[in-house]
Specification:
heterodimer, A: about 325 residues, mainly alpha, MetI-like fold, 2 domains, two-stranded antiparallel sheet, 13 helices, globular, B: about 425 residues, alpha/beta, D-Maltodextrin-Binding Protein, domain 2, 3 domains, 8-stranded mixed beta sheet, 3-stranded parallel beta sheet, 15 helices, about 15% strand
């Protein structure tokens, strides 16, 4: 019925258009609800739950009426003044040092690949991505083998010491060293830092750099006044991506050390949730506290990015 | 009629009393829509009244029978087996994959294996009632809990001729489940000390009055590890301090055990692992490690090529000449969850694994020893299933009867909180 189409067409288009673009948000919202809000509510329900008298495990309390937030008081008492304070501070120190090392190592790599690698760029990117093809756990396990007392690393060091006739006592890398755990974190997460930074460096228009040089700036000055400010948000983005999972990491210290000296916050959550039967609520409360803490970092990032975008528009 | 304790309980710690007004205010605040109010109020009412469950916890000296409930009967005798698939619910790597096709052929059904990561997860899954399995493998200390919570059903022994025929009398009629009303034993293990004689002087362990004390011997600083498992490790520290029954440890004794573990950080540079006994010792990462006997038997597959594995040793302090301290012994069981869809098949599976040849085939892979009359240490060593220098890692039926053997019972939440506090101290590194 072509006549009908002609008369109603305009109205219909307007009607459907109103829903088309917001409609694109539906998958994202469903995703957010199912995979973020529901699990998050579940963590709350566990934190606020009570111990079952028979099973002696925490029954999640789904009904907010019965929520008993006392567990947060326990968690805060443990964190400030209790045993967990040391662990929390250690975790923060590890993550900040590891992130700093990621910037020091990762920035030059990203810079090189985006601006200097020329036609071999794809190869460098491939090499940076290659570790992703192997499971994180597997990569850490290989380090355990490489670093074990009679592992390959010590054998190489012994060979090198032999060349120079230096006495060599093989170090025990896995004996609970802070450095090894921090380097493990750097190794595990650095590709996640390099990639967003690479994308951000890659977007910088060459003309701006050329303009800077034409106007008399030295290469160092150009970097400091043009490249660095333009890539700062890339650094921040990369940092957010690596710091959030680092705060929750517990496999790295488990595998590369196992010493109480290197216990991280994630290990404590694991202990309360997976090892004990009745302490699940405390574990869940610690998880929520960690989430609030990293949400603070995330908020800082979003505010900074927002400000930069607005400044860019003006 | 006996009521199941599970049927009317209230959470004990729910001390706060809510008035109806509180409830309505909160409901309004939370934006709870009116139509759901009646159901919420009904849920509220469910939480009133009732008591808490008493567990029947046995020890070799004081065996107990698990209670039976009218609403949880065993299946009748003489039923035809169901069509599969038979669904097993087990720990990871805790059944020989090669035995599955054999069972499948013997019972004529498909076998499905689902695994759990720890017993908490298993309890959660089973008590949610949302999944059904036909066979579950709980540790013996969980049996009283599983019975009280109606997670498992009684067994009909008509389907289990192999139980009395083949199984050690000590475990065919075990202290935790007299008459095997709900479970049959799966594998046994002791917990002791694993070491290698090329890195550790055996005299520091064997013949010592307190073998556990070797973990505090500074000769082996930086060379030793303990299990990253708080019940095992706190119990070990209690034994080392001379406590006979960790289940009865006082707060002061627990504090002292915590102190002893904290001391290990500086003194010994202790490391906590879960793979130290079976792979850390063979790989030379540790000379000395807290060890489950089954891990020690299994470690034979983890030695690097060409390495001399005869340097491995194991000692269970409860059965060591001159030792005056106790040591843990335990076993895992097989049970049929309540609500299993294929209970007859499940009984047949239990009986299948209680067969000598089948359990031996399973042992070959699992490394944890089935309590079979004919599978004596002499037989296992003679046939090459175990090594003579690791004979101490093989459990004998009499081990359950020695006075120095200790069996772990379930920890109630209050006690577990105390243990967990000490464990956090031991693990926090400061």
């Amino acid at each position: 019925m072509p006549t009908n189409l002609a008369s109603g067409a305009e109205y219909d288009t307007v009607g459907s258009k109103r829903w088309v673009w917001p409609g694109f948000a539906v998958p994202g919202i469903v995703w957010l609800l199912l995979l973020f809000l529901v699990p998050f509510y579940a963590i709350f329900a566990v934190a606020m739950g009570q111990v079952d008298p028979i099973l002696q495990r925490v029954n999640p309390e789904w009904n907010p009426i019965y929520w008993a937030p006392e567990v947060f008081a326990d968690a805060f008492a443990d964190l400030f003044g209790g045993q967990l304070g040391v662990i929390a501070l250690r975790t923060i120190a590890y993550v900040f040092i590891a992130s700093l090392l990621c910037v020091i190592v990762g920035y030059p790599v990203a810079y090189f690949v985006s601006r200097k690698a020329g036609r071999w760029r794809w190869l460098w990117l491939l090499l940076i991505l290659a570790p992703f093809w192997i499971n994180y756990l597997m990569r850490m396990m290989s380090w355990v083998n490489l670093l074990s007392p009679d592992g390959q690393v010590n054998r190489w060091l012994a060979t090198i010491a032999g060349w120079f006739s230096v006495a060599f006592t093989p170090p025990d890398w896995l004996a609970g060293s802070h450095l090894v755990v921090i380097l493990g974190l750097v190794y595990g997460y650095i590709p996640f830092f390099i990639l967003p930074l690479f994308a951000s460096l890659d977007r910088i228009d060459n003309a701006t750099l050329e303009a800077s040089r034409d106007l008399g700036a030295s290469p160092l000055n150009t970097f400091w006044r043009v490249t660095w400010p333009l890539s700062r948000n890339g650094v921040l983005g990369g940092l957010v991506i690596i710091m959030l999972p680092m705060f929750g990491d517990y496999y790295t210290p488990n595998l590369l050390s196992g010493s109480p000296r290197t216990t991280m916050y994630g290990n404590t959550i694991d202990q309360f949730i997976n090892q004990t039967t009745s302490q699940g609520a405390l574990g869940a409360a610690l998880t929520i506290i960690l989430m609030i803490f990293v949400a603070g970092l995330m908020a800082y990032y979003l505010i900074t990015i927002n400000r930069a975008t607005r400044a860019g528009r003006e | 009629m006996a009521y199941h304790p599970r049927e009317n309980w209230i959470p004990q710690n729910r001390r706060r009393v809510y008035t109806r007004r509180d409830f309505l205010q909160r409901a309004a605040l939370l934006g709870v829509a009116l139509p759901v109010l009646p159901s919420l109020l009904a849920a509220c009412a469910d939480r009133e009244g009732g008591g808490s469950g008493d567990l029947a916890v046995g020890t070799p000296a004081n065996p107990v029978q698990q209670p039976l409930f009218d609403d949880n009967p065993a299946i009748d005798s003489g039923l035809e087996p169901e069509d599969g698939p038979l669904k097993l619910y087990n720990w990871e790597d805790y059944i020989n994959p090669e035995i599955l096709p054999v069972v499948s052929e013997a019972l004529g059904v498909e076998i499905e294996v689902a695994t759990f990561f720890n017993e908490e997860a298993a309890l959660a899954a089973l008590s949610s009632g949302e999944v059904t399995y036909d066979v579950w493998f709980p540790t013996s200390q969980r049996v009283p809990v599983a019975v009280a919570a109606a997670l498992i059903q009684p067994l009909n022994h008509e389907y289990l001729p192999n139980l009395d025929a083949n199984v050690w009398p000590q475990l065919a009629d075990p202290y935790y489940d007299q008459g095997s009303l709900y479970t049959v034993p799966y594998v046994t293990y002791s917990t002791g000390i694993g070491w290698r004689i090329d890195m550790v002087d055996s005299e520091d362990i064997e013949g010592q009055a307190n073998p556990w004390d070797v973990f505090w011997n500074t000769k082996y600083a930086g060379n030793m590890g303990l299990y990253d498992s708080f019940t095992d490790t706190i119990a070990m520290a209690l034994f080392r301090n001379g406590v006979g029954d960790p289940s009865q440890a006082t707060e002061a004794e627990l504090e002292a055990a915590g102190d002893a573990l904290v001391e290990l950080i500086e003194l010994m540079n202790v490391r906590y692992t879960i793979d130290g006994a079976y792979s850390g010792i063979p790989e030379g990462r540790f000379g000395l490690h807290h060890a489950w006997s089954g891990d020690v038997v299994n470690s034979q597959y983890y030695w690097p090529e060409g390495a001399d594995m005869t340097v491995a040793r194991y000692l269970w302090p409860a059965r060591s000449e001159g030792s005056t301290v106790n040591g843990p012994i335990s076993n895992d069981t097989m049970a049929i969850p309540k609500g299993a869809e294929h209970p007859v098949l499940a009984h047949q599976f239990l009986d299948f694994l209680l067969d000598q040849g089948n359990s031996l085939l399973n042992f070959e892979y699992v490394g944890y020893q089935p309590p079979q009359n004919e599978l004596t240490p002499e037989f296992l060593i003679g046939e090459g299933y175990a090594q003579d220098y690791l004979a101490a890692a093989l459990v004998t039926p009499e081990d359950f009867e020695v006075e120095t053997a200790w069996v772990q019972g379930p920890l109630d939440a209050e006690t577990e909180t105390l243990w967990s506090e000490q464990w956090t101290r031991a693990k926090s590194g400061g």
